[in-house]
Structures are given as structure tokens and as C-alpha cells.
Amino acid sequence: MLGGKDSLLNKDDTGAGRPVPNVKALLPVLIFLVIYLGNGIYFEYISQISGKMGFYITSVVVSFGIALIVAFFQNRKLSFDEKISVCAKGIGDNNITIMLLIFLLAGAFGGLAGATGGASSTANMLLNIIPGNFAVLGLFIIACLISMAMGTSVGTITVLAPIALMVAKNGDLSIPMCAGSVIGGAMFGDNLSFISDTTIASTKTLGVEMKDKFITNIKMALPAAIVTVIILTAVSLRSDTSFSENYEFNFWLALPYFLVFVLALMGINVFLVLLIGIVMFLVFGLFFESITYASAFESMGTGTSSMFETMIVTILVASISSLIKEHGGFEAILQYIRNHFNDKRGGMFGIAILTSFMDVATANNTVAIVISAPIARDISREFGVSKKVTASLLDTCSCIMQGIIPYGAQLLVAASIMGISSISIVPWLFYPFVLAFFVGLAIIRAKG
Q1: Which residue, of 305, 336, 358, is where some domain finishes?
Q2: Is 238 exposed, middle or buried (0-12, 13-18, 19+ CB in 10 A)?
């Protein structure tokens, strides 16, 4: 804690300092939800403005900015400089830094892929291979594999969203449905990947072996994926597509995508994968004259610029979360769970609700895990929940909510690339909703 403010601390059983539970510290979360979600729903469904999408009228950055201001006005026992230090520690977290760098590389990759025609060539190749009615199912399965290999849902969405857009347009399919399939598959892989930030965060904070968490996760994730495949198969069989027999494509312009897929499946670091993809698009794009030296840099600049909002949101969320934790908001949640649950199932349910709420509040599944883990560790000890189950719940529940909330990076990136509203994707997010059902079932069936 900062500034020696002993009055802000309680002592736990080990003597470590903790903030005094303070439910008022959660006010910034409520402020954000009212401003962003409230206005989004109002302008999207109640008072629509012609030519504008409701959730883009009220800026998510401005909404989080107002919430941060509210957080700064709370807790007068800390000076302004001390609160700045708290925010700086949150922003300086390794996971936050990694995410920001991935956003930049992913933006450059996506911008260059679109400018060279790589996305359209790859999409057309897939359309010539995949039966028209099963294109949406194919997108889901490919996203599952790529995300498991890359360990990042945002990176997977960045790679696949342009292809999904072309598949939707060329096959006369619902763009939100194709986006939902990609996001669902991306969250499946993010939840299970050994190199995912969420896996690393949930296992390291609980002291659990990755393989143990994976085995616990797969018992919920695999049945959910199978059900999703069945649903998408049924949707595919009912779809009426009108693909022509052949679509033109340039194999060499599509090759960088396939190489990225292969490298990702091999488990190569996501930074290296994206860098190789960028270099290959530059080489083939210049060789086939689909881009020029100038347009290449322009497209990469446009791509990285498209990620700026997401990056700013990440920084703001890290700051708000740090202040809420410092002011006792998260300790208030722990106190509530202690007062309302008294057995193993209750403890598991408390961990699930806690992690889900943190993700709704922070819009970042890795940050949600990092914040929730200390509280979840105490809950697991008090209620007899094993560490591997706790780690699994942290990872799975954060991925469920991150794959659903319309202001999270995953939906925002997909919506930005595909030119749709993030809220329009939500009804097509079959996998996250099915996974939530299986998590609930696992909690109900837990012994003790």
C-alpha cells in the first residue's frame, strides 16, 4: 500500500495488510455501466440516430475516462500523487504491456493484409474448399485451432475477421453470425492454450501446473465446443447460400495467412508470428504490385491507428481497477461472498461470480484474473475448493464474459474490422453462452 496509510488497512490471518471493505469504491464501475451501456442501449433500441450505431455514439474511452475521474475523487486519505502511483503500477503490469504491443502488431498485420489483398485471396480459397453451407462452422473450428496455438483471442480475431467478412459478403451470410463464430472459437483457444496470458495468470497466481488446469478446463470447454458445432451445423444446414463455383485468388498473397496458421499451430510466439506475417505480406505485396512502398506504410499506419481506442481503454481500465482495489472495493466483494456462501459449491459459485464481475468491470480477462486471484485464493482455502478448480474457474469465467461483453477488446476489434456494431454480434455468440451452462453444471455437480 502507498503512503503508510495504516487506517486504510485490515489485517488478515497472516498479518498482511488489506484495504478496509468499501462498497462505495465500486461506484466507478456503476458510473461506466450507466454511461456506456445505458446510452448504448438507448441510442441503439429506443432513440436511434439515422446512419449511426448506438454503441458508437457514446465513446467507450470517454465513458471510462469519466469513471476514472470518479475513482480519483474517492478516498481522500490518499493524495493525488499517491493515486497516480497506484495507476502507474496497474498500467505497468507485464500483461498490460504485452497486450498493448500485440495490439500494435496485430493492427499493422491486419492493415497490410487488407491492403495487399491477402485477406480476400485467403477467403476466396476457403470458399472454393469449404462447402458454402458450412462456411460458418469452418470459421469456428479454424478459430479454435489458431487461438489455441497463438494463445491470444485478439490476435486470432485480427487474423480471421477479415476472412470472415469476405466469407460473409461472398456467401451472402450474416456478418454478425460469422463474427460470432470467430469470437467463439477464439475464446475456446484462449481458455485452453498453454501460452495464453489467461492460462499463465490463473496458474501462476494459484501455484497450479498448466496441465492440471488444462485437464480441468477441457471437461467443460470440449462439451461446450461440441454443442456449438452441433448448433452451427444445424444453422448451416438451414442457410440458403448462393456461392458461385469458383472465386479468383492469388495463392502467393494467401500464403502468408496459411504460414501464420502453421506457425501458430507450432506454438511459435505470437510476436514472431505476426512479424513474419507482416514481412511476407510486404514481400509478396510489393512483388505482385498490389501495394507500393508508400501504400504499405500507409496501410500499416491505418491498421495500428484502428487499435488506438482499444489500447487507450486497456490503459484506463488498468488504472480504474488499481484504484478500486486500493480503495477497498474488491475487499467488499470478498466480504460479501464470505457472508452469503458456506460450502464448496457456494465457494465455486462465488469465484465464478467474482471473476465474471471483474471482467465486466475491467473489460480485460487477464486483468480480471490478476485482480480476482488473491480473493479467489482465499475463497478456495476457506471453502475447500482445489487450486486447479479455482484456476480453471478464473480462466473460464473471465473468457466467457470477455467473449460476451460488447465493450471488450474481442468484440470491439471484430466489430471494427467487419464494420458492424459490437452489440449485433452478441446473439450469435453460441460458444460463450453454452460454456457458461457447462460451468454452472460443473458447480452444481461438485461434491462437498
Answers
A1: 305
A2: exposed
Q: Is the pLDDT of residue 183 over 70?
A: yes
pLDDT of residue 55: 63
| H helix or E strand, kind and range, residue 294 | helix 293-305
Q: Do 136 and 70 belong to one domain?
A: no
Cα–Cα distance between 257 and 122 in angstroms, integer? 7
Report the domain count for the chain: 2
Residues 165 and 252 in one domain: yes
**Domain final residue, candidates 259, 286, 305:** 305
* DSSP of 26-65: GHHHHHHIIIIIIHHHIIIIIS--TT--HHHHS-HHHHHH
Helix axes 409-418, 308-326, angle to 10 degrees: 160
List Cβ neighbours of 309 (8 Å cut-off, separation of 6 or more): 60, 61, 412
pLDDT digits (tens, 9 = 90+) for 40-95: 778 867 887 876 766 667 787 898 899 999 999 998 889 999 999 999 998 887 76
Instruction: Give the domain range for residue 34.
Output: 24-78
Instruction: State how far the Cα of 402 lies from the Cα of 183, in Å rounded to an integer.
Output: 10
Residue 8 has pLDDT above 60, yes or no: no
d(CA 89, CA 112): 34
Domain assignment present for residue 5? The answer is: no
Report the candidate in 202, 143, 216 with the shortest Cα–Cα distance to residue 410. Answer: 143
Q: Is 406 inside any structural domain? A: no
Task: Please indicate, yes or no, whether residues 259 and 153 belong to a single structural domain of this protein.
Answer: yes
Write the CA distances from 37 to 153, 195, 288, 321, 354, integer angstroms: 23, 32, 46, 18, 20
Mean pLDDT of 407-419: 84
In the predicted structure, residue 98 carries a pLDDT above the cut 80:
no
Co-location of 68 and 100 in the same domain: no
Asked whether the beta carbons of 448 and 343 are under 8 A apart, the reply is: yes
Task: Note the pLDDT tens digit of each residue in 122-151.
Answer: 666 766 777 767 778 888 988 887 787 667
Q: Around Cβ 182, how many Cβ atoms within 10 Å?
A: 32
